[in-house]
Amino acid sequence: MRPPLEAQETQVRDESREIRIKRLAMRSMRRGIKEMDILLSAYAGANLEAMEEAKLDLYDSLLRENDQDLYQWVTGQVPAPEVFHDLIAEISLTYQK
User: Fold this and answer.
1) Contact between residue 29 and residue 37 where contact means Cβ atoms under 8 Å apart
2) What is the number of structural domains in the chain?
3) Helices (H) and strands (E) in the chain — how many of each?
4) What is the CATH number of the domain that holds 30?
5) Domain of 37, in residue numbers
6) What's residue 65's pLDDT?
7) In terms of Cα–Cα distance, which of 90, 81, 29, 6 is closest to 55?
8) Which residues have C-beta within 8 Å of that of residue 71, sequence separation ≥ 6?
9) Does residue 27 form part of some domain?
10) 8 located within any domain
11) pLDDT at residue 17 greater than cutoff 60
12) Residue 95 near residue 42 (C-beta atoms within 8 A)
């Protein structure tokens, strides 16, 4: 059973940067659909260590979104919400090289 959302948020605020990056990397590769596992784990591996706290916050928020929505945003099928627009554009470039 998962702890209540408030407990999860407190835990996240109390974690070290190293633990946070490990958690985000794990969440990036353990998604609901394989395509997002591949895209997000590649992006996380290349970028998490260099991210500033505000960008880590944004990426953390992005990982809370539904995989079907994320996939459509990353592949350009549906425009991403403005708050995620630049981050989604970066993720999209991961496999366009």
Assistant:
1) yes
2) 1
3) 6, 0
4) 1.10.150.250
5) 17-93
6) 96
7) 90
8) 33, 35, 36, 77
9) yes
10) no
11) yes
12) yes
- Judge whether 81 lies within some domain: yes
Q: At 55, which amino acid appears?
A: K
Is residue 14 very low, low, confident or very high in pLDDT (cuts 50, 70, 90)? Answer: confident
Distance CA 31, CA 28 (A): 6
User: Quick one: pLDDT at residue 31?
Assistant: 87
**43/9 Cα distance (integer angstroms):** 24
36 C-beta neighbours (distance < 10 Å), count: 21
Q: What percent of the chain has pLDDT above 70?
A: 84
> Rounded to two decimals, what is the model's pTM?
0.83
Task: Dump pLDDT digits (tens) for 29-67.
Answer: 998 889 899 999 999 999 999 999 999 999 999 999 999
Q: Is residue 51 part of a domain?
A: yes
